[in-house]
Specification:
- There is one protein chain.
- This protein has 130 residues and is of the alpha+beta class.
- The protein has a single domain (5-128), classed as 2,3-Dihydroxybiphenyl 1,2-Dioxygenase, domain 1, CATH 3.10.180.
- It has helices spanning 13-23, 64-67, 87-96; strands at 5-10, 27-35, 41-48, 55-60, 78-83, 100-101, 106-108, 111-117, 123-128.
- The strands form 2 sheets. Strands 5, 6, 7, 8 and 9 form a 5-stranded mixed sheet that branches.
- Strand 7 and strand 8 (111-117) form a beta hairpin.
- The radius of gyration is 15 Å and the shape is globular.
- The termini are far apart.
- The relative contact order is 0.20.
């Protein structure tokens, strides 16, 4: 058993792809035409960190209810955690690429951490070893 995909609801496919690939360094695994359950066109967009098995399905908000959760999928809490081996290098690269860090890096008992926002406004922890 494994966790294959999680979904992040976004307002625009292409901006989300650019953020995850250019700012975070993820790979674009799939970007295929698809259909909603009622037959309207959509895209099936999956990104994945290098070397990871679990991917992220970038789903464009469809309707009022989904639009309301863009950027607030974890009710304002950090809901996503990105582990890197070299925290300082990742932090510098992401900052240079335009990542919006809302906290400065700090050291906790579990390692180095800094909180950043994704393209939709969801909060993520960038995590690495101390």
């Amino acid at each position: 058993m494994r966790l294959d995909l999680i979904t992040i609801v976004v307002d625009d496919y292409d901006r989300a792809i650019a953020f995850f690939t250019e700012v975070l360094g993820f790979h674009l695994v799939e970007d295929s035409p698809s259909l909603t359950n009622d037959g309207r066109p959509k895209r099936w967009v999956v990104v994945r960190p290098p070397g990871a098995e679990t991917g992220i399905l970038l789903a464009r908000a469809d309707g009022e209810r989904q639009t309301a959760v863009v950027g607030n999928q974890a009710a304002g809490r950090v809901g996503f955690f990105l582990w890197v081996e070299d925290f300082d290098a990742a932090y510098r690269r992401m900052t240079a690429a335009g990542a919006d860090f809302v906290t400065a890096p700090r050291t906790e008992p579990y390692g180095r951490v800094a909180v950043f926002l994704d393209i939709a406004g969801n909060r993520w922890d960038l995590l690495g070893p101390s």
